Amino acid sequence: DAKTTQPPSMDCAEGRAANLPCNHSTISGNEYVYWYRQIHSQGPQYIIHGLKNNETNEMASLIITEDRKSSTLILPHATLRDTAVYYCIVRGNTGFQKLVFGTGTRLLVSP
Amino acid sequence: GAVVSQHPSWVICKSGTSVKIECRSLDFQATTMFWYRQFPKQSLMLMATSNEGSKATYEQGVEKDKFLINHASLTLSTLTVTSAHPEDSSFYICSARGGRDSGAKNIQYFGAGTRLSVL
Fold first, then answer.
1. Dihedral angle computed from the Cα positions of residues A52, B36, B110 and A38, in that order, rounded to the nearest 10 degrees
2. Which of A7, B34, B35, B74 keeps 20 to 30 A from B48, CA to CA?
3. Identity of the residue in B45, B106, B113 whose CB atom sits nearest the CB atom of A42
């Protein structure tokens, strides 16, 4: 699976949009981009995933560049409860593909 | 999203004893289940992958005789830490993935984790 690179930490003011970047320059054609987050002392929570089109759900939006070498997770109106470690993971969708976690981005949402 | 239940959430045991952790997919059939371990201030580390009715595939460096995994049904997997020692103290997290036609839609969902403390 392709490797991802994320900034170690980011800050965001409550109510503002949080834009979390991820680089995955070695992504291959059949690999998806997945985003999870882990709030302290809990299991990871699925947020969103995509292949090449932008995606939106009730939690967030995922913007994938046309060359698919990078993506951005957008939390449109961050709240204090969005403080967590956010993981961007690239994974194929066939066979025994598994999620391999990197170090993620620690997002701190402040009042 | 789909629900994965993990039990117990917290366990303390004496050194040398064995501990069993259960992982259940509540609203979908999990074709594949995963077990992760996480030490403080570190990321999740994949320990093993299992498919229903098959032997688990362990990641490099993970002792299969130490961490016994049983994926007996499409909704249940267990991890048994045998002869636990203080260095096995960690946060263990299970994960389950269903097929594209399942409620999980080929997405990997996670349990809440089990904090193991070995005295």
1. -80
2. A7
3. B113
